[in-house]
Amino acid sequence: MEKPTVALVYQAVQALYHDPDPAGKERASVWLGELQRSMYAWELADQLLQLKQDVESCYFAAQTMKMKIQMSFFELPPETHIALRDSLLSHIQSLKDLSPIIVTQLALAIADLALQMASWKGCVHTLIEKYSNDVSSMTFLIEILTVLPEEVHSRSLRIGANRRTEIIEDLAYYSSTVVTLLMTCVEKSGSNEKMLIKVFRCLGSWFNLGVLDSNFMANNQLLMVLFQVLQRDETSTNLHEAASDCVCSALYAIENVDTHMPLAQQLFQGVLTLETAYHMAVAREDLDKVLNYCRIFTELCETFLETTVRSPGQGMGDLRTLELLLICAGHPQYEVVEISFNFWYRLGENLYKTNDPALHGIFRPYIQRLLHGLARHCQLDPDHEGIPEDTDDFGEFRMRVSDLVKDVIFLVGSMESGGAAARDCPYRRALHQH
């Protein structure tokens, strides 16, 4: 391929998006793909971003930059790295209001550059120092800080284990600075929904990487803001989902509870306050929020599973966590209880391994109530005709229930009345109902 002009590249992008002839679109797609693989792509993508002609050409250019940095970073001599970084930062600042998808592509390009550019020390510190005092830059700054931890384990990046370790240590060092910045954003933006969603997404990303200091987080106002958002009836669906994702990420991050005790206690108490909000969501028939709460309750139970089995009813082995899941099992939609299945499998497995009759006795009533709830869900409508299909959603749900029953039946079957009690249980009849 000979080096094309930027005008020709722009023309091809227009054909890709707007040519009414499918053959024309296909030709443009093939040609642009070839261009992206060439060395000319670096310079031409940069020129397209400078032109700022329209969303399509800027998106193509931003995507090309991200792709080249991910797959072909070795093509660039080290002395060009700083110029590339400065150029990308200039582009994201000038294009920040054009389209969120362009901001995301450029943020990914900057993050992938930072992870591969060993000479860019303390990139988080550099970015926060450069942009945190400019309110208009906050949107893209938080976007970069969101994708940076997500890209650390990206398979597209050719970085070795030593470099990854170095990056993670660097991000851990600046993690508290990031959280402080996020809290400042919340204070400045008040109840701005879009900003809160961005803040929660970013915080969740840092929880997922596992680098946040749990003592620092336990006393941070952001946790309080998270639970306040989840407790409010008027919280929108999108904000509710972002807050729920963040809490689930936090619970997953403290799975080794004993080493994260202060944060574990705060999250434990915070989730227990959401029961009333769950009932309000049920009353309003807001299934999206109901599913979010059930995800949070399930993640809580998963995180504290070992503690619950080790010291049931004491401290963070509080059995109210199981009560929350059983409340969800009572919801009329079977999709809600299905979220918790993995936890019940794991609980059954843990109790089977311990083989302690006294311990089994503590958990048996909870398993019995779960089985009765599942029996109700598995019953067919009175007006149903014929044999249910195993391949539809409801049929697959009944199969999963059957698998779960097999894994926990030993707890119910070990009652003094033995096998007869298990045989007569209503969930068996429900499962085999035709």
UniProtKB/TrEMBL annotation:
Q: Which InterPro entries does the entry mention? A: ARM-like (IPR011989), ARM-type_fold (IPR016024), Exportin-1/Importin-b-like (IPR013598), Importin-beta_N (IPR001494), Importin_beta-like_NTR (IPR051345), TPR_TNPO3_IPO13_2nd (IPR057941)
Q: Where is the signal peptide?
A: none
Q: Which GO terms describe its biological process?
A: protein import into nucleus
Q: Please name the source species.
A: Oncorhynchus tshawytscha (Chinook salmon)
Cross-referenced Pfam families, in alphabetical order? Answer: IBN_N (PF03810), TPR_TNPO3_IPO13_2nd (PF24138), Xpo1 (PF08389)
Q: Which residues form the Importin N-terminal domain?
A: 28-94
Cross-referenced PANTHER family: TRANSPORTIN 3 AND IMPORTIN 13 (PTHR12363), TRANSPORTIN-3 (PTHR12363:SF42)
Q: Which gene encodes it?
A: TNPO3
The entry's protein name is Importin N-terminal domain-containing protein
The protein's superkingdom reads Eukaryota
| GO CC annotations on file | cytoplasm
- Kindly list the GO molecular function terms attached to this UniProt entry: small GTPase binding
